[in-house]
Amino acid sequence: MMSSAERPDYYSVEEYLEREIQSRTKSEYIDGWIRAMTGATVRHNQVAVHCLVALGNKLKGKDCRPYNSDMKLRIDRDGRRRFYYPDLQVVCQSNDPSSVYQDLPVLIIEVLSPSTRNYDLHEKMEAYLTIPSLECYIVLEQHQPLAILMRRTQHGFVRETVQGTESTIDLPFLGCWLAMKDIYEGIEFTDTCVQEADPEYEFAEQSSEEGNQ
Predict the structure, then answer these.
(1) Model-level pTM?
(2) Do the Cβ atoms of 42 and 50 come closer than 8 Å?
(3) Which residue of 43, 178, 188, 211 could cross-link 169, Cys pair, CB 3.0 to 4.6 Å?
(4) CA 4 to CA 43: how far, in whole Å?
(5) Which CATH code fits 40-212?
(6) Among 89, 58, 68, 94, residue whose Cα is nearest residue 172
(7) For residue 109, which of 162, 61, 152, 52 has the smallest C-alpha distance?
(8) CA angle 2, 8, 48 (to 5 degrees)
(9) CA gap 159, 49 in Å, rounded
(10) Parallel, antiparallel, or unpaired: how do β-strands 88-91 and 176-179 relate?
(11) Cα angle value 73/75/78 (rounded, 5°)
(12) Cβ contact 61:31 at 8 Å
């Protein structure tokens, strides 16, 4: 999903959740700030839907279930709270059926876009890796068959790269795998991963670089 860089006034969790119920659009909640979201490209949605369908088929009859980007994810970090809308999350210990968010995903998948690349690879990754139940975080390029994995090990999270349509992403904690050819079925690849010109992405990259100086 695409996120705007603007941050309005501070809101409580209760105010945010009430706004989301009444709003026609989605927003993420980051430690009191609300970040509006906009629609994604056709390519972005195709990659996300392919993952959802593949995992849905492989997890039939199991306790674990995949959820698309309509399901919020709640994260508690040192007394602060965040709500994100991952492109996909797999949950084996679900919240109550009436809940509008999940707390314990074992797998999270985000599809990179120019305006969300910095968030997905930095802010969200840092937050996601604090989730006790999380076994793997996968970031997928949408313009090329390339996946970045952060996989939990006995020594913490380890980064892996999976590339090419002949490759597979093993998910032993779910007893299945994802084939890259299925994820990228029908996708027209480009020479570079970040294709669309996007001022927000350029601003995010510039801010990141300035913060590291």
Answers:
(1) 0.85
(2) no
(3) 178
(4) 19
(5) 3.90.1570.10
(6) 58
(7) 52
(8) 15
(9) 24
(10) unpaired
(11) 175
(12) no
d(C-alpha 185, C-alpha 43), whole Å? 11
80-104: burial string, b at 16+ Cβ within 10 Å, e else: eebbbbbbbbbbbebeeeeeebbbb
| Amino acid occupying residue 64 | C
**Half-sphere exposure of 123 toward its Cβ, with a 13 Å CA cutoff?**
20
- Between CA 138 and CA 174 the distance in angstroms is 14
Domain residue limits, the chain: 40-212
- Each as own residue / partner, the long-range contacts of residues 72-79 (CB below 8 Å, 24 or more positions apart, any chain) are 72/20, 72/100, 72/101, 72/102, 73/101, 73/102, 73/103, 73/105, 73/108, 74/101, 74/102, 74/103, 75/127, 75/128, 75/130, 75/131, 77/127, 77/130
- pLDDT, tens digit, for every residue of 26-83? 999 999 999 888 777 899 999 999 999 999 999 999 999 999 999 999 999 877 899 9
Amino acid at 170: D
pLDDT in tens, 76-135: 987 789 999 999 999 999 999 999 999 999 999 999 988 788 889 999 999 999 999 999
DSSP per residue, 144-184: SSEEEEEEEETTEEEEEEEESTT-EEEETTTTEEEEHHHHT
Q: How many residues does the chain have?
A: 213
